[in-house]
Design brief:
By secondary structure, this protein is an alpha/beta fold. The chain contains four helices and eight strands. Helix 3 packs parallel to helix 4. Bound molecules: pyrazine-2-carboxylic acid and zinc ion.
């Protein structure tokens, strides 16, 4: 299994924690049932990285992807609300930078690269490889990771630190396949090590 490979975390690596927000967690409006299990690995590995970013879905209330406007999703992560806040389970002290996304009412904003200048920020920090954790495997994690590849970054998804929605059974597996097909690697959080 590729999961058995050990990864040395270098200064040119960044960790991006995708949307660890209350609305995507148990009790939230678009909850991933087992979402809280991502926090133990995320909080454990953060200290390995010189640069940690967390994205947040930060929608205006009139976002056209809400069901009220004919879109697929219930209200979630409306900017400034409790549901849009990072979960109290996230060790937020370890986050260097927040990336707000989904702020345009007309585009889905699944990817942390969409309309955020994230690629420029990563390049400015000399980042070459990103490690991806968070929610949801089949939406924002997938879109963020594929956009990272398009922007020329290596990408490693931390398998035990992501969780998915599976609106249709198999969505998560298809998302994993789509990422693998684009050269994304997968690693268990326990296989990450400090650089020598
Ligand atoms: C997400 C659905 C709608 C996500 C965001 O964070 O994966 N999914 N908005
Ligand atoms: Zn959203």
């Amino acid at each position: 299994m590729p999961e058995s490979v050990t990864y040395r975390i270098e200064p040119t690596d960044a960790l991006i924690v995708v949307d660890p927000q209350n609305d995507f967690l148990p009790g939230g409006s678009l909850a991933v049932p087992d979402g809280n299990r991502i926090f133990e690995p995320i909080n454990r590995i953060m200290a390995l990285f010189a640069y940690v970013l967390a994205s947040r879905d930060w929608h205006p209330r009139n976002h056209r992807y809400f069901q009220a406007y004919g879109g697929p999703w219930p209200y979630h992560c409306v900017a400034g609300t409790y549901g849009a806040r990072f979960s109290p389970l996230l060790a937020a002290d370890g986050v260097d930078e927040v990336v707000s996304k989904g702020t345009d009412p007309a585009t889905d904003g699944y990817s942390a690269f969409a309309g955020t200048a994230l690629a420029e920020r990563l390049h400015a920090h000399g980042v070459r490889r990103i490690f991806v954790a968070g929610i949801a495997t089949d939406y924002c994690v997938k879109c963020t990771t594929l956009d990272a590849r398009d922007a020329g970054f290596e990408a490693v998804v931390i398998s035990d630190a992501v969780a998915g929605i599976d609106v249709e059974p198999g969505d998560v597996d298809r998302a994993l396949d789509a990422m693998r097909a684009r050269g994304v690697a997968f690693a268990d959080s326990h296989s990450l090590r400090a650089s020598a």
